[in-house]
């Protein structure tokens, strides 16, 4: 990749001392920096993205900084990064909150971190923003990535919550990530049952998508 030259390549677009009115260009460049360093971000890159997230003045810049930081720190389970992203989530801004919820899951991917799970599920219930709930749904599902049976106690807390379709679809997404590529017939059967019986179309849609994830290898 272009890790060594990333800052030079992106310099015309990265945030400067004079902030752009909206920040779309700057936010996009921070996301691009994270993509370049995805899953192997250097300490210097992570530090830079954290500084940009702290300094961000617009939702668009915070959005890009959250996504970039989540990618660069993917799978590190870095608690300081996670807490900074959680702070961005708690601003309850629909645009940056969606990215923060997703990025929290990227940092904690495959960890089944109980505290992160509780934080994210609780905020899914607390926020009124659909965009934030959707970002958290993806983030929560990433916690279970590849963990199969170990994730069942977490999935069980979500998948049958009759009063909350968002939590049910989150449980289905979590199941899909836990068993991705496994081809487990019993899990496919559980997803098919959701397609047939759940009254909510979003839950049905995620169950069908989940079958694809399970059979993806």
Automatic annotation (TrEMBL):
GO terms for biological process: proteasome-mediated ubiquitin-dependent protein catabolic process. The lineage of its organism: Eukaryota, Metazoa, Ecdysozoa, Nematoda, Chromadorea. This is Proteasome cyclosome domain containing protein. Pfam families: PC_rep (PF01851). Signal peptide: none annotated. Gene3D superfamilies: Leucine-rich Repeat Variant. GO terms for cellular component: nucleus; proteasome regulatory particle, base subcomplex; proteasome storage granule. Coiled coil: none annotated. Keywords: Proteasome, Repeat.
């Amino acid at each position: 990749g272009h890790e060594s030259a990333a800052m030079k390549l992106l310099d015309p677009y990265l945030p400067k001392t004079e902030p752009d009115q909206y920040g779309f260009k700057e936010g996009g460049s921070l996301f691009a920096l994270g993509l370049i360093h995805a899953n192997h971000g250097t300490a210097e890159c992570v530090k830079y993205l954290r500084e940009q997230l702290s300094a961000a003045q617009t939702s668009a810049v915070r959005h890009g900084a959250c996504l970039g930081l989540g990618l660069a720190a993917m799978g590190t389970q870095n608690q300081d990064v996670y807490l900074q992203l959680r702070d961005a989530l708690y601003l309850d801004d629909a645009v940056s909150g969606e990215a923060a919820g997703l990025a929290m899951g990227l940092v904690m991917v495959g960890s089944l971190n109980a505290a992160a799970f509780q934080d994210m599920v609780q905020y899914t219930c607390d926020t009124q923003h659909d965009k934030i709930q959707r970002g958290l749904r993806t983030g929560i599902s990433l916690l279970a990535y590849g963990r199969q049976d170990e994730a069942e106690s977490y999935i069980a807390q979500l998948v049958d919550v009759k009063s909350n379709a968002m939590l049910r679809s989150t449980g289905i997404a979590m199941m899909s990530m836990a068993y991705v590529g496994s081809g487990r017939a019993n899990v496919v059967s559980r997803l098919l049952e959701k397609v047939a019986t759940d009254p909510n179309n979003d839950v049905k849609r995620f169950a069908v998508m989940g079958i694809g994830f399970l059979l993806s290898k």
